[in-house]
């Protein structure tokens, strides 16, 4: 059974800090073909679409399109601040391998 991805409190807090909802935007997490491992994540601010899964907390939203959803089943969407910079990240249990940059994976 496919479970929707989870979004951490830290990720929702970051969306609130950058004022995503105030701008009518949500964090879009999508999976596309390509990247060094076969698939890559696209993470950007975007307006929600009709067929999106919407994960919402305190007015902030994270959206996933219906094509990407199976690839993100039970994944965790988080926000991290490291030496290389602050960014949204996806911890995906479906990925069998990933590249060093963390944006590309295979299944």
Compact description:
This is Iron-sulfur cluster assembly accessory protein. The protein is mainly beta and 107 residues long.
Layout: helices, strands, pairs:
Layout (H helix, E strand, L loop, with lengths): L5 E2 L1 H9 L8 E8 L5 E8 L6 E5 L2 E5 L11 E7 L2 E7 L5 E2 L5 E3 L1
Parallel strand pairs: 1-6, 2-5
Antiparallel strand pairs: 2-3, 3-9, 4-5, 6-7, 8-9
Structure overview:
With 107 residues, the protein is mainly β. It has a single domain, classed as Sandwich (Hypothetical Protein Aq_1857, Chain: A), CATH 2.60.300.12. It is 8% helix and 44% strand. It has one helix and nine strands; from the N terminus they run E-H-E-E-E-E-E-E-E-E. It has one helix at residues 9-17, and strands at 6-7, 26-33, 39-46, 53-57, 60-64, 76-82, 85-91, 97-98, 104-106. A six-stranded mixed β-sheet has the order 4-5-2-3-9-8. A three-stranded mixed β-sheet has the order 1-6-7. The radius of gyration is 13 Å and the shape is globular. One of its GO terms (biological process) is iron-sulfur cluster assembly. One of its GO terms (molecular function) is iron ion binding.
